[in-house]
Amino acid sequence: MTRTPLADVACSIARATDLFGDAWTALIMRDVLTGVTRFDDLAHDLGISRKVLAARLSRLVEEGVLVRERYQERPPREHYRATPKGEELYPVLLALMEWGDRWYAGPAGPPARIRHLGCGLDTTPVSACAHCGEPLTVGNTTQLPGPGGRTGPGTRVLGPLLAAREDTPETGRPATV
Amino acid sequence: MTRTPLADVACSIARATDLFGDAWTALIMRDVLTGVTRFDDLAHDLGISRKVLAARLSRLVEEGVLVRERYQERPPREHYRATPKGEELYPVLLALMEWGDRWYAGPAGPPARIRHLGCGLDTTPVSACAHCGEPLTVGNTTQLPGPGGRTGPGTRVLGPLLAAREDTPETGRPATV
DNA sequence: ATTCTTAAGTTCCCTCAGGGAACTCGGCTA
DNA sequence: TAGCCGAGTTCCCTGAGGGAACTTAAGAAT
């Protein structure tokens, strides 16, 4: 898996994917955020190889997503907890879960519900505009180069087609978006 | 990578991750949704091995996330477009991007901006409750078993700790959530 | 009419990451 | 003092991914 190259790309999705784009990391974060925080519990719950689990956990600690903490002194035992950076991955998990629910839930319905304690209802998470609160979709958003974007050959930022709309009209190819 | 086992697990995150938990798939979807839809363009833009790109694309088509379509007749040329199922992965990408922006953007700022055409402003996507519109966080939500959840030994659904809160009080271990 | 080029993949070889299971090591506990 | 967690390491083996060359089909160039 090409790790380092991806992290260098000037795209936040690529940077996030470099860490999170791995079959296990999302599930580890799901577990840790829902209270499965010990090595053995994670290994059993996920069915992951202990070797790979150890590697993932130390990478996540290195990245500041998890912290390894002692939770009891005698005998000394450590577990893993999410940092704020780790907790902020929750929206990613919610989005993945929502998508999985919509497209893979059987006739019985989704395997889990998310209850919003604020309003007390079982909720479905939507990706909303921070300003007006409307749902964001492929159709009602456009991607523009940001301040931190590098320009130059081969360094796409995000959405050259849509960025191009700002200055010159596109070619004849159908616009997906 | 253990593919099939994960898809069987009664957890929508696991199901979604089985397809999406791969360093390349997220980036392919980003590209396709932003207008990079042809094989060679994808290969060059991503720097992905052509072999792996072919494998990913055919998997995505198989799953109904993309469709392979002829976009010109002479000479016959095909490209890939997102289906509704594919477009609905957009919130996942937004969440990944937002997280990457927050934690990996340099001093110059994020590499890209998302403009919401509805309100005309550059936006930051938030994961909100569909009922009340409030942001969903680890702290203000709880996970409960859903109708489609399997019960039995070894089949965690999502959040046994939080689910357990409904009936019996927890052990002495600190609750991460 | 032959050669060039482009698009869209395949094929081949090779390395390295992941799976599985056994081993380690410190520190209780019976 | 033998056993038993919890938390990893180590070992071997297979298979997925990288890289680069090859293929096929259909214009376009000369």
Write structural notes for this entry.
Two copies of one chain form a homodimer. With 177 residues, the first copy, chain A, is of the alpha+beta class. Chain A contains eight helices and six strands. Chain A folds into three domains: 4-87, Orthogonal Bundle (Arc Repressor Mutant, subunit A); 90-123, no CATH class; 126-177, no CATH class. Helices cover 41% and strands 17% of the residues of chain A. In chain A, the strands form two sheets. Chain A has a two-stranded antiparallel sheet with strand order 1-2. A two-stranded antiparallel sheet of chain A has the order 3-4. In chain A, a hairpin with a 4-residue loop joins strand 1 (66-72) and strand 2. The first copy, chain A, is globular. At the A-B interface, helix 2, helix 3, strand 2, helix 7 and strand 3 of A face helix 2, helix 3, strand 2, helix 7 and strand 3 of B. The structure holds a DNA duplex (30 and 30 nucleotides).
Summarize the structure.
The first copy, chain A, is an alpha+beta fold and 177 residues long. Helices cover 41% and strands 17% of the residues of chain A.
> What is the name of the CATH topology of the largest domain in chain A?
Arc Repressor Mutant, subunit A
Tally of domains of chain A: 3
Decide which structural class fits the backbone of chain A: alpha+beta
Report the biggest beta sheet of chain A as strand number plus sense, adding barrel if it closes: 2 strands, antiparallel
Low-confidence stretches of chain A: 1-7, 151-177
How far is it from the N-terminal to the C-terminal residue of chain A, by CA?
Answer: 30 Å
Number of strands of chain A: 6
> How confident is the prediction overall: mean pLDDT of chain A?
82
- The helix content of chain A, as a percent range, equals 40-55%
Query: Radius of gyration of chain A, rounded?
Result: 20 Å
What is the CATH architecture annotation of the largest domain in chain A?
A: Orthogonal Bundle
**Strand line-up across the major sheet of chain A:** 1-2
Largest interface: A-B, 109 and 110 residues
